[in-house]
Protein backbone atom coordinates (compact mmCIF):
# COMPACT_ATOMS: atom_id res chain seq x y z
CA UNK A 1 0.00 0.00 0.00
CA UNK A 2 1.38 3.38 -1.05
CA UNK A 3 1.64 5.92 1.73
CA UNK A 4 2.14 9.58 0.92
CA UNK A 5 2.65 12.72 2.98
CA UNK A 6 -0.32 15.03 2.66
CA UNK A 7 0.48 18.71 3.27
CA UNK A 8 -3.15 19.29 4.19
CA UNK A 9 -3.05 16.93 7.19
CA UNK A 10 0.74 17.05 7.79
CA UNK A 11 0.70 13.26 7.89
CA UNK A 12 1.62 10.25 5.85
CA UNK A 13 -1.61 8.69 4.66
CA UNK A 14 -2.60 5.55 2.77
CA UNK A 15 -3.26 6.42 -0.84
CA UNK A 16 -6.88 5.54 -1.56
CA UNK A 17 -7.95 6.70 -5.02
CA UNK A 18 -11.43 7.97 -5.82
CA UNK A 19 -11.79 5.75 -8.89
CA UNK A 20 -10.60 2.23 -8.27
CA UNK A 21 -7.29 1.45 -9.96
CA UNK A 22 -6.89 5.00 -11.26
CA UNK A 23 -4.92 7.97 -10.05
CA UNK A 24 -5.93 11.47 -11.10
CA UNK A 25 -3.15 13.98 -10.63
CA UNK A 26 -2.74 17.68 -11.35
CA UNK A 27 0.73 19.18 -11.37
CA UNK A 28 1.43 22.88 -11.50
CA UNK A 29 3.50 23.42 -14.60
CA UNK A 30 5.88 26.13 -15.73
CA UNK A 31 5.25 29.76 -16.53
CA UNK A 32 6.88 29.82 -19.94
CA UNK A 33 8.51 33.24 -19.99
CA UNK A 34 12.01 31.96 -19.25
CA UNK A 35 14.10 28.80 -19.09
CA UNK A 36 13.40 26.30 -16.34
CA UNK A 37 16.29 26.20 -13.86
CA UNK A 38 17.53 23.12 -12.04
CA UNK A 39 15.37 23.97 -9.01
CA UNK A 40 12.21 23.94 -11.11
CA UNK A 41 13.39 20.71 -12.68
CA UNK A 42 13.88 19.10 -9.28
CA UNK A 43 10.18 19.63 -8.68
CA UNK A 44 9.33 17.91 -11.98
CA UNK A 45 11.68 15.02 -11.15
CA UNK A 46 9.69 14.64 -7.93
CA UNK A 47 6.45 14.67 -9.94
CA UNK A 48 7.92 12.02 -12.23
CA UNK A 49 8.98 9.77 -9.34
CA UNK A 50 5.47 10.03 -7.94
CA UNK A 51 3.89 9.22 -11.31
CA UNK A 52 6.23 6.29 -11.88
CA UNK A 53 5.55 4.92 -8.40
CA UNK A 54 1.80 5.08 -8.99
CA UNK A 55 2.26 3.28 -12.30
CA UNK A 56 4.55 0.72 -10.68
CA UNK A 57 1.82 0.09 -8.14
CA UNK A 58 -0.56 -0.65 -10.99
CA UNK A 59 -2.59 2.55 -11.13
CA UNK A 60 -3.74 3.88 -14.45
CA UNK A 61 -2.70 7.49 -14.49
CA UNK A 62 -4.55 10.54 -15.63
CA UNK A 63 -2.11 13.37 -15.13
CA UNK A 64 -2.62 16.98 -16.11
CA UNK A 65 0.04 19.65 -16.27
CA UNK A 66 -0.64 23.25 -17.15
CA UNK A 67 1.52 25.53 -19.23
CA UNK A 68 1.02 29.04 -17.88
CA UNK A 69 1.33 31.29 -20.90
CA UNK A 70 -0.65 34.23 -19.53
CA UNK A 71 -1.70 35.87 -16.30
CA UNK A 72 1.18 35.12 -13.92
CA UNK A 73 2.01 38.56 -12.58
CA UNK A 74 5.37 39.60 -11.21
CA UNK A 75 3.89 40.10 -7.76
CA UNK A 76 1.72 37.79 -5.68
CA UNK A 77 -0.40 40.82 -4.86
CA UNK A 78 -1.96 40.89 -8.33
CA UNK A 79 0.07 43.92 -9.27
CA UNK A 80 3.07 44.26 -11.52
CA UNK A 81 3.42 43.25 -15.10
CA UNK A 82 2.32 39.92 -16.57
CA UNK A 83 5.50 37.81 -16.79
CA UNK A 84 4.72 36.89 -20.40
CA UNK A 85 4.12 40.49 -21.38
CA UNK A 86 7.40 41.55 -19.76
CA UNK A 87 9.43 38.89 -21.57
CA UNK A 88 7.69 39.84 -24.79
CA UNK A 89 8.59 43.50 -24.38
CA UNK A 90 12.18 42.74 -23.46
CA UNK A 91 12.80 40.18 -26.17
CA UNK A 92 10.79 41.99 -28.85
CA UNK A 93 8.73 38.91 -29.64
CA UNK A 94 5.04 38.23 -29.28
CA UNK A 95 3.97 36.49 -26.06
CA UNK A 96 2.92 33.54 -28.22
CA UNK A 97 6.42 33.26 -29.69
CA UNK A 98 7.91 33.50 -26.21
CA UNK A 99 5.58 30.80 -24.90
CA UNK A 100 6.20 28.47 -27.85
CA UNK A 101 9.97 28.80 -27.52
CA UNK A 102 10.24 28.20 -23.76
CA UNK A 103 7.62 25.44 -23.81
CA UNK A 104 9.70 23.65 -26.39
CA UNK A 105 12.91 23.98 -24.37
CA UNK A 106 11.05 22.83 -21.25
CA UNK A 107 9.88 19.61 -22.89
CA UNK A 108 13.35 18.97 -24.30
CA UNK A 109 14.72 19.25 -20.74
CA UNK A 110 12.06 16.88 -19.39
CA UNK A 111 12.95 14.35 -22.06
CA UNK A 112 16.65 14.54 -21.26
CA UNK A 113 15.84 13.95 -17.60
CA UNK A 114 13.60 10.95 -18.37
CA UNK A 115 10.63 12.82 -16.92
CA UNK A 116 7.49 11.35 -18.46
CA UNK A 117 5.06 13.86 -19.93
CA UNK A 118 1.70 13.90 -18.12
CA UNK A 119 -1.16 12.53 -20.21
CA UNK A 120 -2.74 15.94 -20.68
CA UNK A 121 -0.78 19.15 -21.23
CA UNK A 122 -3.11 22.12 -20.86
CA UNK A 123 -2.15 25.55 -22.12
CA UNK A 124 -3.81 28.35 -20.19
CA UNK A 125 -4.57 30.34 -23.36
CA UNK A 126 -6.53 27.37 -24.74
CA UNK A 127 -8.88 27.45 -21.74
CA UNK A 128 -9.90 31.08 -21.39
CA UNK A 129 -13.60 30.29 -21.82
CA UNK A 130 -13.48 27.68 -19.02
CA UNK A 131 -11.85 30.29 -16.78
CA UNK A 132 -14.46 32.94 -17.61
CA UNK A 133 -17.24 30.44 -16.86
CA UNK A 134 -15.60 29.55 -13.56
CA UNK A 135 -15.24 33.20 -12.54
CA UNK A 136 -18.83 33.92 -13.57
CA UNK A 137 -20.05 31.11 -11.32
CA UNK A 138 -18.04 32.46 -8.39
CA UNK A 139 -19.52 35.92 -9.00
CA UNK A 140 -23.04 34.43 -9.21
CA UNK A 141 -22.47 32.63 -5.90
CA UNK A 142 -21.33 35.84 -4.25
CA UNK A 143 -17.66 34.92 -3.91
CA UNK A 144 -16.41 37.24 -6.62
CA UNK A 145 -16.83 41.01 -6.83
CA UNK A 146 -15.88 43.60 -9.39
CA UNK A 147 -13.66 46.63 -8.84
CA UNK A 148 -11.99 49.01 -11.28
CA UNK A 149 -9.14 46.74 -12.31
CA UNK A 150 -10.77 43.34 -12.16
CA UNK A 151 -12.83 40.67 -10.47
CA UNK A 152 -11.61 39.59 -7.05
CA UNK A 153 -12.24 36.64 -4.77
CA UNK A 154 -13.80 37.64 -1.47
CA UNK A 155 -11.73 35.81 1.14
CA UNK A 156 -14.02 37.04 3.91
CA UNK A 157 -16.72 34.69 2.53
CA UNK A 158 -14.44 31.64 2.76
CA UNK A 159 -13.68 30.76 6.38
CA UNK A 160 -11.42 27.84 5.42
CA UNK A 161 -8.80 30.16 3.98
CA UNK A 162 -5.34 29.24 5.27
CA UNK A 163 -5.98 25.58 6.05
CA UNK A 164 -3.24 24.30 3.76
CA UNK A 165 -0.47 26.62 4.91
CA UNK A 166 -1.84 26.86 8.46
CA UNK A 167 -1.01 30.53 8.38
CA UNK A 168 -3.28 33.23 9.61
CA UNK A 169 -4.28 35.80 7.03
CA UNK A 170 -2.02 38.32 8.77
CA UNK A 171 0.98 35.98 8.48
CA UNK A 172 0.26 35.37 4.84
CA UNK A 173 0.09 39.08 4.22
CA UNK A 174 3.42 39.68 5.90
CA UNK A 175 4.99 36.94 3.81
CA UNK A 176 3.57 37.95 0.50
CA UNK A 177 4.29 41.67 0.69
CA UNK A 178 0.92 42.39 -0.85
CA UNK A 179 0.40 45.97 -1.83
CA UNK A 180 -2.99 47.07 -0.69
CA UNK A 181 -5.47 48.00 -3.35
CA UNK A 182 -7.89 50.32 -1.59
CA UNK A 183 -10.91 48.98 -3.44
CA UNK A 184 -10.36 45.42 -2.29
CA UNK A 185 -12.56 44.28 0.57
CA UNK A 186 -9.65 42.47 2.21
CA UNK A 187 -5.95 42.94 1.36
CA UNK A 188 -5.60 39.20 0.67
CA UNK A 189 -8.48 39.10 -1.84
CA UNK A 190 -6.92 37.92 -5.08
CA UNK A 191 -7.68 38.55 -8.75
CA UNK A 192 -9.82 36.05 -10.61
CA UNK A 193 -9.85 38.18 -13.74
CA UNK A 194 -7.92 41.33 -14.56
CA UNK A 195 -9.17 44.07 -16.84
CA UNK A 196 -6.63 44.82 -19.54
CA UNK A 197 -5.13 48.17 -20.41
CA UNK A 198 -5.29 48.77 -24.18
CA UNK A 199 -1.53 48.10 -24.51
CA UNK A 200 -1.82 44.69 -22.86
CA UNK A 201 -1.08 42.27 -25.70
CA UNK A 202 -2.94 39.18 -24.51
CA UNK A 203 -6.56 40.01 -23.79
CA UNK A 204 -9.92 38.37 -24.28
CA UNK A 205 -13.55 39.43 -24.38
CA UNK A 206 -15.38 38.68 -21.13
CA UNK A 207 -18.56 39.73 -19.30
CA UNK A 208 -16.36 42.35 -17.60
CA UNK A 209 -14.84 43.77 -20.77
CA UNK A 210 -11.46 42.93 -22.30
CA UNK A 211 -9.10 41.24 -19.91
CA UNK A 212 -7.08 38.20 -18.93
CA UNK A 213 -7.31 35.54 -16.22
CA UNK A 214 -5.64 35.50 -12.82
CA UNK A 215 -2.98 32.84 -12.39
CA UNK A 216 -4.77 30.76 -9.72
CA UNK A 217 -7.99 30.40 -11.69
CA UNK A 218 -6.04 28.71 -14.48
CA UNK A 219 -5.15 25.70 -12.37
CA UNK A 220 -8.64 25.51 -10.86
CA UNK A 221 -10.44 25.70 -14.20
CA UNK A 222 -8.18 23.22 -15.97
CA UNK A 223 -8.12 20.67 -13.15
CA UNK A 224 -11.93 20.86 -12.95
CA UNK A 225 -12.25 20.37 -16.70
CA UNK A 226 -10.00 17.35 -17.00
CA UNK A 227 -10.18 15.66 -13.61
CA UNK A 228 -13.51 16.73 -12.13
CA UNK A 229 -13.78 17.48 -8.42
CA UNK A 230 -12.82 16.04 -6.08
CA UNK A 231 -9.73 14.48 -7.65
CA UNK A 232 -6.89 12.54 -6.05
CA UNK A 233 -3.56 14.37 -6.07
CA UNK A 234 -2.25 17.88 -6.61
CA UNK A 235 1.51 18.48 -6.76
CA UNK A 236 3.78 21.51 -6.88
CA UNK A 237 6.76 23.08 -5.14
CA UNK A 238 6.53 24.15 -1.47
CA UNK A 239 6.51 27.81 -2.54
CA UNK A 240 2.99 27.24 -3.87
CA UNK A 241 1.53 26.22 -0.52
CA UNK A 242 0.77 29.66 0.95
CA UNK A 243 -0.71 31.68 -1.91
CA UNK A 244 -1.25 29.72 -5.09
CA UNK A 245 -2.64 26.50 -3.65
CA UNK A 246 -4.48 28.22 -0.85
CA UNK A 247 -6.22 30.27 -3.53
CA UNK A 248 -6.98 27.21 -5.63
CA UNK A 249 -8.61 25.57 -2.60
CA UNK A 250 -10.67 28.70 -1.93
CA UNK A 251 -11.89 28.88 -5.53
CA UNK A 252 -12.62 25.16 -5.79
CA UNK A 253 -14.46 24.84 -2.53
CA UNK A 254 -16.41 28.03 -3.12
CA UNK A 255 -17.51 26.65 -6.48
CA UNK A 256 -18.28 23.05 -5.57
CA UNK A 257 -19.07 23.37 -1.88
CA UNK A 258 -16.86 20.40 -1.02
CA UNK A 259 -13.29 19.22 -0.69
CA UNK A 260 -11.59 19.43 -4.09
CA UNK A 261 -8.32 17.52 -3.73
CA UNK A 262 -7.61 14.58 -1.44
CA UNK A 263 -3.80 14.67 -1.36
CA UNK A 264 -1.74 17.85 -1.64
CA UNK A 265 1.87 16.80 -2.15
CA UNK A 266 4.74 19.27 -2.32
CA UNK A 267 8.39 19.01 -3.29
CA UNK A 268 10.98 20.87 -1.22
CA UNK A 269 13.24 23.48 -2.73
CA UNK A 270 16.65 23.20 -4.24
CA UNK A 271 19.23 25.62 -2.88
CA UNK A 272 22.52 26.60 -4.43
CA UNK A 273 25.49 26.89 -2.07
CA UNK A 274 22.94 26.82 0.74
CA UNK A 275 21.20 29.92 -0.50
CA UNK A 276 18.39 30.97 -2.74
CA UNK A 277 18.70 30.60 -6.47
CA UNK A 278 18.39 33.94 -8.12
CA UNK A 279 19.24 35.59 -11.38
CA UNK A 280 21.13 38.40 -9.66
CA UNK A 281 23.46 35.89 -8.00
CA UNK A 282 24.04 34.21 -11.36
CA UNK A 283 23.29 30.78 -9.88
CA UNK A 284 20.14 29.78 -11.75
CA UNK A 285 21.71 26.97 -13.72
CA UNK A 286 19.91 25.27 -16.56
CA UNK A 287 20.40 21.73 -17.81
CA UNK A 288 22.29 23.08 -20.80
CA UNK A 289 24.69 24.87 -18.41
CA UNK A 290 25.43 21.55 -16.74
CA UNK A 291 25.89 19.90 -20.13
CA UNK A 292 28.34 22.57 -21.17
CA UNK A 293 30.36 21.73 -18.07
CA UNK A 294 30.51 18.08 -19.03
CA UNK A 295 27.61 16.58 -17.07
CA UNK A 296 24.73 14.59 -18.48
CA UNK A 297 21.15 15.37 -17.57
CA UNK A 298 20.94 11.95 -15.90
CA UNK A 299 23.87 12.80 -13.62
CA UNK A 300 21.62 15.56 -12.34
CA UNK A 301 18.68 13.17 -12.05
CA UNK A 302 20.84 10.77 -10.01
CA UNK A 303 21.91 13.73 -7.85
CA UNK A 304 18.26 14.55 -7.13
CA UNK A 305 17.30 10.93 -6.43
CA UNK A 306 19.74 10.84 -3.54
CA UNK A 307 17.68 13.24 -1.44
CA UNK A 308 14.10 12.65 -0.33
CA UNK A 309 11.65 15.00 -2.05
CA UNK A 310 10.59 16.54 1.27
CA UNK A 311 14.12 17.58 2.19
CA UNK A 312 15.90 20.65 0.95
CA UNK A 313 18.57 19.76 -1.55
CA UNK A 314 21.67 21.89 -1.72
CA UNK A 315 23.21 22.01 -5.17
CA UNK A 316 26.99 22.30 -5.43
CA UNK A 317 29.27 21.23 -8.25
CA UNK A 318 31.17 19.03 -5.75
CA UNK A 319 27.90 17.29 -4.97
CA UNK A 320 27.15 16.88 -8.67
CA UNK A 321 30.67 15.51 -9.26
CA UNK A 322 30.10 12.91 -6.54
CA UNK A 323 26.74 11.97 -8.07
CA UNK A 324 28.24 11.68 -11.53
CA UNK A 325 31.02 9.41 -10.23
CA UNK A 326 28.62 7.26 -8.20
CA UNK A 327 26.21 6.96 -11.13
CA UNK A 328 28.91 5.83 -13.48
CA UNK A 329 30.14 3.24 -10.93
CA UNK A 330 26.59 2.07 -10.52
CA UNK A 331 26.27 1.61 -14.28
CA UNK A 332 29.53 -0.35 -14.29
CA UNK A 333 28.12 -2.68 -11.63
CA UNK A 334 24.83 -3.03 -13.52
CA UNK A 335 26.80 -3.98 -16.61
CA UNK A 336 28.45 -6.88 -14.73
CA UNK A 337 25.04 -8.32 -13.95
CA UNK A 338 23.81 -7.63 -17.45
CA UNK A 339 26.59 -9.75 -18.94
CA UNK A 340 26.53 -12.43 -16.22
CA UNK A 341 24.83 -15.81 -16.66
CA UNK A 342 21.67 -16.63 -14.72
CA UNK A 343 22.34 -18.03 -11.26
CA UNK A 344 19.03 -19.85 -10.99
CA UNK A 345 18.33 -18.02 -7.71
CA UNK A 346 15.21 -15.94 -8.25
CA UNK A 347 14.48 -15.70 -4.52
CA UNK A 348 17.34 -13.27 -3.99
CA UNK A 349 16.10 -10.94 -6.74
CA UNK A 350 12.54 -11.20 -5.41
CA UNK A 351 13.73 -10.24 -1.94
CA UNK A 352 15.33 -7.05 -3.26
CA UNK A 353 12.33 -6.16 -5.42
CA UNK A 354 10.13 -6.50 -2.34
CA UNK A 355 12.44 -4.24 -0.31
CA UNK A 356 12.47 -1.76 -3.14
CA UNK A 357 8.70 -1.69 -3.35
CA UNK A 358 8.43 -1.08 0.38
CA UNK A 359 10.85 1.84 0.12
CA UNK A 360 9.06 3.64 -2.69
CA UNK A 361 5.66 2.95 -1.14
CA UNK A 362 6.83 4.65 2.04
CA UNK A 363 6.29 8.23 0.91
CA UNK A 364 8.55 7.76 -2.14
CA UNK A 365 11.71 6.91 -0.20
CA UNK A 366 13.86 6.92 -3.32
CA UNK A 367 17.19 7.49 -1.49
CA UNK A 368 16.55 4.24 0.40
CA UNK A 369 15.53 2.52 -2.85
CA UNK A 370 18.83 3.61 -4.42
CA UNK A 371 20.71 2.17 -1.42
CA UNK A 372 18.89 -1.14 -1.95
CA UNK A 373 19.90 -1.08 -5.60
CA UNK A 374 23.55 -0.59 -4.58
CA UNK A 375 23.39 -3.48 -2.13
CA UNK A 376 21.82 -5.70 -4.76
CA UNK A 377 24.40 -4.74 -7.38
CA UNK A 378 27.26 -5.72 -5.11
CA UNK A 379 25.95 -9.29 -4.91
CA UNK A 380 27.68 -11.91 -7.06
CA UNK A 381 26.85 -11.00 -10.69
CA UNK A 382 23.72 -12.75 -11.91
CA UNK A 383 21.34 -12.08 -14.77
CA UNK A 384 18.33 -12.25 -12.43
CA UNK A 385 19.70 -9.26 -10.53
CA UNK A 386 20.02 -7.30 -13.75
CA UNK A 387 16.37 -8.07 -14.46
CA UNK A 388 15.51 -6.88 -10.95
CA UNK A 389 17.52 -3.68 -11.51
CA UNK A 390 15.43 -2.99 -14.61
CA UNK A 391 12.35 -3.41 -12.44
CA UNK A 392 13.72 -0.72 -10.09
CA UNK A 393 14.48 1.45 -13.08
CA UNK A 394 10.80 1.68 -13.96
CA UNK A 395 10.69 4.12 -11.05
CA UNK A 396 14.26 5.43 -10.93
CA UNK A 397 14.44 6.24 -14.64
CA UNK A 398 18.24 6.02 -14.80
CA UNK A 399 18.54 4.17 -18.13
CA UNK A 400 20.05 1.13 -16.39
CA UNK A 401 19.22 -1.00 -19.43
CA UNK A 402 21.74 1.04 -21.40
CA UNK A 403 24.63 0.20 -19.06
CA UNK A 404 27.72 -0.40 -21.16
CA UNK A 405 31.17 -1.82 -20.55
CA UNK A 406 32.89 0.76 -18.33
CA UNK A 407 35.58 2.87 -19.87
CA UNK A 408 39.20 2.13 -18.97
CA UNK A 409 39.57 5.10 -16.63
CA UNK A 410 36.39 4.19 -14.74
CA UNK A 411 37.74 0.69 -14.05
CA UNK A 412 40.83 2.15 -12.44
CA UNK A 413 39.08 4.20 -9.82
CA UNK A 414 41.08 4.14 -6.64
CA UNK A 415 38.30 3.13 -4.26
CA UNK A 416 37.11 -0.44 -4.80
CA UNK A 417 33.50 -0.92 -5.81
CA UNK A 418 32.62 -3.05 -2.80
CA UNK A 419 33.76 -0.24 -0.52
CA UNK A 420 31.71 2.28 -2.49
CA UNK A 421 28.71 -0.01 -2.32
CA UNK A 422 29.07 -0.14 1.47
CA UNK A 423 29.26 3.65 1.54
CA UNK A 424 26.06 3.94 -0.50
CA UNK A 425 24.35 1.44 1.77
CA UNK A 426 25.47 3.45 4.80
CA UNK A 427 24.13 6.61 3.24
CA UNK A 428 20.75 4.92 2.77
CA UNK A 429 20.84 3.66 6.38
CA UNK A 430 21.44 7.24 7.52
CA UNK A 431 18.63 8.48 5.30
CA UNK A 432 16.26 6.09 7.07
CA UNK A 433 17.77 7.07 10.46
CA UNK A 434 19.08 3.58 11.13
CA UNK A 435 22.13 4.76 13.06
CA UNK A 436 23.10 1.30 14.33
CA UNK A 437 23.29 -0.02 10.78
CA UNK A 438 25.20 3.05 9.66
CA UNK A 439 27.78 2.48 12.41
CA UNK A 440 28.08 -1.20 11.56
CA UNK A 441 28.69 -0.29 7.92
CA UNK A 442 31.32 2.26 8.93
CA UNK A 443 33.11 -0.54 10.79
CA UNK A 444 32.89 -2.80 7.74
CA UNK A 445 34.35 -0.03 5.58
CA UNK A 446 37.18 0.40 8.11
CA UNK A 447 37.89 -3.34 8.01
CA UNK A 448 38.53 -2.97 4.31
CA UNK A 449 41.04 -0.22 5.06
CA UNK A 450 38.91 2.81 4.16
CA UNK A 451 37.55 5.74 6.04
CA UNK A 452 34.28 7.47 5.22
CA UNK A 453 34.03 11.17 6.00
CA UNK A 454 30.57 12.66 6.21
CA UNK A 455 30.02 15.93 4.41
CA UNK A 456 27.05 18.22 4.34
CA UNK A 457 26.10 16.99 0.88
CA UNK A 458 27.07 13.34 1.23
CA UNK A 459 30.46 11.86 2.02
CA UNK A 460 33.93 11.28 0.73
CA UNK A 461 35.91 8.11 1.22
CA UNK A 462 39.68 7.68 1.50
CA UNK A 463 42.31 5.10 2.50
CA UNK A 464 42.49 4.83 6.28
P1 LIG B 1 7.27 28.52 -11.88
O1 LIG B 1 7.52 28.35 -13.34
O2 LIG B 1 7.99 29.67 -11.28
O3 LIG B 1 5.81 28.49 -11.52
O4 LIG B 1 7.93 27.25 -11.16
C1 LIG B 1 7.77 25.96 -11.65
C2 LIG B 1 7.86 24.95 -10.53
O5 LIG B 1 9.16 24.97 -9.94
C3 LIG B 1 6.89 25.20 -9.41
O6 LIG B 1 6.29 23.95 -9.04
C4 LIG B 1 7.73 25.75 -8.28
O7 LIG B 1 7.20 25.39 -7.04
C5 LIG B 1 9.05 25.05 -8.53
N1 LIG B 1 10.24 25.74 -8.03
C6 LIG B 1 10.59 27.06 -8.14
N2 LIG B 1 11.79 27.31 -7.58
C7 LIG B 1 12.26 26.13 -7.10
C8 LIG B 1 13.44 25.71 -6.39
N3 LIG B 1 14.42 26.55 -6.08
N4 LIG B 1 13.54 24.40 -6.05
C9 LIG B 1 12.56 23.51 -6.35
N5 LIG B 1 11.43 23.85 -7.02
C10 LIG B 1 11.26 25.13 -7.38
ZN1 LIG C 1 -0.95 25.86 -10.30
What would you note in describing this structure?
It is a single chain. By secondary structure, this protein is of the alpha/beta class. It has helices spanning 38-56, 83-91, 95-112, 128-140, 169-176, 215-227, 241-256, 287-292, 297-305, 317-338, 346-361, 366-377, 383-396, 408-411, 417-431, 435-447; strands at 3-6, 11-14, 22-27, 60-67, 120-123, 144-147, 150-153, 191-195, 211-213, 231-237, 261-267, 270-272, 313-315, 450-455, 458-463. Strand 6 and strand 7 (150-153) form a beta hairpin. The radius of gyration is 24 Å and the shape is elongated. The two termini are 43 Å apart. The mean pLDDT is 92. Residues 28, 219, 244 line the site of zinc ion.
**What is the alpha-carbon Rg in Å?**
24 Å
CATH topology (level 3) name of the largest domain:
Rossmann fold
Mean pLDDT over the full residue set: 92
Low-pLDDT windows of residues: none
For the sheet with most strands, the description reads: 5 strands, parallel
Structural class: alpha/beta
Highest CATH level, the class of the largest domain:
Alpha Beta
Which percent bin holds the helix content? 40-55%
Widest sheet: strand ordering? 5-4-3-10-11
How many domain modules?
3
CA-CA gap between termini: 43 Å
Bound molecules: adenosine monophosphate, zinc ion
Number of helices: 16
What name goes with the CATH superfamily of the largest domain? HUPs
Strand content range: 15-25%
CATH architecture heading of the largest domain: 3-Layer(aba) Sandwich
Count of DSSP strands:
15
The best one-word shape is: elongated
Amino acid sequence: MLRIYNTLTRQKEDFVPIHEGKAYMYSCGPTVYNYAHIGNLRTYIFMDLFRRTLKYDGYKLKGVMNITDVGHLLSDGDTGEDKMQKASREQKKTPWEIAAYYTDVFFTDLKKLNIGKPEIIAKATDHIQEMIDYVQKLVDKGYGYEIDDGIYFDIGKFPGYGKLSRLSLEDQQAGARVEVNSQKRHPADFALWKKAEPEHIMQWQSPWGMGYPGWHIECSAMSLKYLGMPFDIHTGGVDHIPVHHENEIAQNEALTGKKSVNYWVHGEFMLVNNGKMSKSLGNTYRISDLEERGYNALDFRYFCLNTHYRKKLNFTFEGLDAAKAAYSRLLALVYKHKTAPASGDTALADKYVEQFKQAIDDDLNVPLALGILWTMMKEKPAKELFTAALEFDKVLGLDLDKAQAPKEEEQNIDVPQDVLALCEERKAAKASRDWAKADALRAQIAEKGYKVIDKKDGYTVEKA
